Amino acid sequence: MSNDAIGVLVMSYGTPESLDSVEEYYTHIRRGNAPSPEQLKELVDRYEEIAGGVFPLRENTDRQVSSLQDKLDTVETGRYRCYQGLKHARPYIEDGVQRMAQDGIKRAVGIVLAPHFSTMSVASYNKRAMQEAEKHGIEMSCVDSYHLHPSLIQALAERVRDGIDAVSAKAGGAEVKVLFSAHSLPVRIRQVGDPYEEQLLETSRAVAEAARAGSWQFTWQSAGRTNEPWLGPDIMETMSSLAEGGEKALLAAPVGFVSDHLEVLYDLDIEAMAHAERLGISFGRIRMLNSDPLYMETLADSIREAAAKLPS
Ligand SMILES: CC1=C(CCC(=O)O)c2cc3nc(cc4[nH]c(cc5[nH]c(cc1n2)c(C)c5CCC(=O)O)c(CCC(=O)O)c4C)C(CCC(=O)O)=C3C
Ligand SMILES: [Fe+2]
Fold first, then answer.
1. Hey, which of 262, 267, 268, 288 would you mutate to test ligand 1's pocket, going by the most ligand atoms within 8 Å of its Cβ?
2. What's the Cα-to-Cα distance from 93 to each of 15, 23, 31, 43, 127, rounded to whole Å?
3. What is the C-alpha separation between 7 and 107, in angstroms, rounded?
4. Could you say which residues bind Fe-coproporphyrin III here (predicted)?
5. Cβ distance 65 to 10 under 8 Å?
6. Can you list the domains of the chain with their CATH numbers?
7. Closest C-alpha to 249, from 220, 280, 271
């Protein structure tokens, strides 16, 4: 059975389905190496702290995929059919492609719910998707990045503007410095000319300008705990040195992420917030995009552009 619809594989990092599956998830992230009991406990504790052992990323990704389907249907009903594929949890990227094949899909687009391209992130999602698609005879075209799409910049700029106002009010009208951030990666990405850093700076610059943010800088967050060096400075260090220099109010704008999840709800809202309290400064973060209509528009446009490259 052949199907004229274009399949859309919507890919995201993935999160455990329950506390029982945290070990399997962590082992998958570590490429098959099981974590030590201490490492596992630390991760379980972080999930328990953010939402009492539920996994907000799962519901957020589900909602993003269904909102995107709705958005694509308003353009042309039935032309696009969305499938979910996760990097480190079920349904895996390969599961999503297999479901397309079962539905008779012959042509598909792949897109990752992360705006910036890196050889260590988006490239590996796309590679897994294309390899599985080839096995099933599906023609697939993948989106590499959409970090400067005007709707994305507008959505982020609105959030930065709102965040500046909220933190400034909390800080008695003090000037707010914006800290754009993203997930750190090992420094070795620089040896392969990876565009990740450059794209993140481009997004930050465009959002700062659109939001008319007076003062801003870029910093990293959530570096892995491995023996190799990771990109820095980390947001904790950046906060310390800015506080030392007399800065009174900071707004985190994690533009490398699109959902409420562990790296935002724990690393920023709990860890960085506690650090700000110790430093005696005001701190806040922008609202995440989740299913924002402007974000859905960004994804839909990028999908249509990739679909135009498929053979007819
Ligand atoms: C580039 C990048 C993104 C952004 C782009 C994208 O979205 O793809 C991202 C997002 C996320 N990372 C997440 C979670 C985790 N990432 C880890 C570890 C790692 N991330 C890495 C990279 C990235 N990660 C890397 C190179 C490692 C080291 C692995 C190794 O050892 O080689 C670990 C292990 C423990 C730790 O180190 O903290 C966890 C638990 C969650 C889900 C949170 C939830 O469930 O709510 C999300 C959205
Ligand atoms: Fe990660």
1. 262
2. 13, 19, 15, 23, 10
3. 6
4. 13, 30, 46-47, 125
5. yes
6. 3-147+292-307 (3.40.50.1400), 150-285 (3.40.50.1400)
7. 280
Binding residues for Fe(2+): 183, 263
Percent helix, percent strand, percent coil in the chain, to nearest 5 = 50, 20, 35
Report the amino acid identity of residue 42: E
Tell me the C-alpha distance between 71 and 100, whole Å. 20
pLDDT digits (tens, 9 = 90+) for 133-191: 999 999 999 999 999 999 999 999 999 999 999 999 999 999 999 999 999 999 999 99
Do 272 and 283 contact (CB within 8 A), yes or no? Answer: yes
Determine the residue of 30, 263, 266, 288 to mutate for testing ligand 1's pocket, defined as the one with the most ligand atoms within 8 A of the Cβ atom. 263
pLDDT digits (tens, 9 = 90+) for 57-94: 999 999 999 999 999 999 888 999 999 999 999 999 99
Dist. CA 199–CA 256, nearest whole Å: 10
